[in-house]
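Researcher: Go.
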Amino acid sequence: MDITLVNMPFAAIQRPSIALGTLRSVLQANGLKVHVTYANLWYAEFIGLDPYLRIENTRAQDVLGDWIFGAAAFPAHEPEHDDYLDRLFRVNRNLARGSVRQTTELLHRIRRQSSSFVDLVTDRVLALSPRVVGCTSMFQQNVASLALLQRIRERAPHVVTMMGGANCETVMGRTLHENFHWVDYVVSGEADELIADLCKKVLAHGRDVPSSEVPFGVFAPNHRVVGYPVAKNGDGVPRAIVQDMRKVPLPEYDEYFAELDAFLYRSDVLACLPIETSRGCWWGAKSHCTFCGLNGGNMSYRSKPAQQARAEIETLVARHKVHRIQAVDNILDTRYLSDLIPSLADREEKLSIFFEVKSNLKKHQIELFSRSGIRSVQPGIESLDTRVLQLMRKGCAAWQNLLLLKWCRQYGVEVVWSIIHGFPGEADEWHAETAKLIPALHHLQPGGLNALRFDRYSPYFNRPMDWGLSLKAGRAYQFAYPLDAAGLEGIAYFMESDRQTNAGWDESARGPGLAALFEAHEAWRKATQFSGPPLWRMPILAIERVEGGAMLTDTRDCAAARTCRLAPEEVSLLDLSDAAPSLVNLRRAVVTQHGLSDEQVSSLIERMVDARYLVLVDGRAVSLVLDHPVPLRIRIRDQPTGYIRVRNAANSLNRALELSYSELR
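Model: Structure:
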């Protein structure tokens, strides 16, 4: 084997790595022998499925996965573990199952066993006799990857080591390369166009590829001696970028599905197929959202032609017999609304697809999504208050976000979203206003509620003084890495402000408005809680047109009546408010259609607002009423991003912990 690529924990179990799958295609097309290894699946068997998922689902900025593998990568680094775990439990309330003490003991045990697992992976990788071993690193994969490559160097010094991925971009990649000398080559940015050339040169020269032949965006061993290359743009550190997405090939996922078929918990995993139709963000290139750190600071938007994207989807589905598709794009190409998406609507057997989108979509576009198999979207809603959205530079308003939630519920499209709080310049009373709005929304899908995070490459990070911020590496990094302050600043993706609090979790740190928002959000979440496959408990606010009028059903907690008959002018008002007209235009339309006086129109609007069928936002009237029939929420087995079911979690955990390293080998 020329090259072995490894997907270390804590990558998601329910999907293959599109990064490694794409690189595999590139390398194979260039005549190189390559194998992709899914060590994340092995680790789920090693520690048990339930603990794996609990660790994976902690907040990324708390770097729990890196802390766990720190025992394998940096055995001499012994920080104050109790301090770390105390904070971890405070901000990840779903981590502990049973008592905090039991979970603490479990995490310490898993950390101690991480070195044995790295030995296991090393054995299996070296059994392939590779000449190059590379790891992809995103979020909580960094230290696990470092631990493996360190062990590879110790056991097989002739093997060349590489790392790439989101954790290796620009300054982070250079810092990693400077401090961990057992990693020979680090790729900063998009490796698709350079990886074959780099690997061929490495296979010919090993660690001694001449500086003049090292591709732009790659840090090589000789850079530690002669100095690191610089770039004119961004933060001054090279980052490779692919200009033409048409040249990015279809990813190869064969090894993943082979590993999945042999997986101990195979029957509990519904896998999905990641696809990539674009890179960058067309909105970010125009107006960079203040908190967004994606794309390594380069928002340049590039996409594949619709015909190519459709062909790749069809090829992957036919090859792997999986109908769940997760697009990893940052944002949907708007041109796809007139070519790719309509073409999927003509497909006889519908797929279940996820895309990230912008929230200012139209009603007919959401209906098209539903017909085309786009069953889930992430629209970047982030707030239901236009003033907060303006602080973010989102380019949308609260009324548009409300309409999107309404139309997605109408057409059975799931929405992945969150309300984010803690933006510089926001006022606590704004949260109180959102809290008053929420009871009227209980028939719509709730999102999360999260504190603002400061990410590298975001405008907050690039120009902190514009907002009076002083940012430094997140405190959790010091528990995972044996680096000085400068090293931590260089390797960290997640930053913290000196003024930042844990207001999202510490109730004593919340103002009255934020406290009210948390209370209202929790009531919303409970009103729509999962009640077992395939059903969700979802309140209804919907109108049914019947002979002689219209009947409205309202099962929200705030409902004055479960059913009522609406007068013609009431139905007309709600219909006219479906697209959130200005209040002035709404009044004019109602007067024109029904010949009412201004006082009568005002009374009509007031009745609809009091019943919470209508909300007034941003000077617009937004009808919250849906039309019968309202579809059920998506079935678990159709979740486009995949699904993992945990059964007998305690038994699987105990079994995994009882197995010795020799048995697992």
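Model: DSSP finds 27 helices and 26 strands in the chain.
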